[in-house]
Fold this protein.
Amino acid sequence: MTTPSYPSTRHILCLLLMFSVATFGMTQSAHDEMSKAVKANNFSDLEWMPCPPPLDFEGCHIAVLHGNPAEANSDLLFRMQPGTTAPEHWHTSAERMVLISGELHVTYTGEETQVMKAGTYAYGPSEKPHTAVCVGEDTCVLFIAFEKPVDSFVDDH
């Protein structure tokens, strides 16, 4: 009996980046790019920017891979430095996530803390408050696909 082979983190990252484009604007050339089925970017070429409020804590960055975060169906990379915590927050949209690197401890209100390691998939329901902590020595990079426009709220829900 053979042991199943699973893709490495590097393979997952390559696959994610092959189907991505880092753009905010929707010029005609960007629109033409968006209509292509396969897109490729180098991880080092991504435009990282500080996380917008209310998730603008020290060490938090995002990079847009596909789409316009102000519209439905956009893909982002979310990066947290080791030892940092994303405050409890929630989103209007559900989130589909794959941890690319690091170890992320995610806790949704009323649930046990889940430990995500590189290659772990997670689904975050819409409007459910949660927090995340990047533990260990490696930077946490999380791929997130949003169904609705990207937003974050830190108030009681």
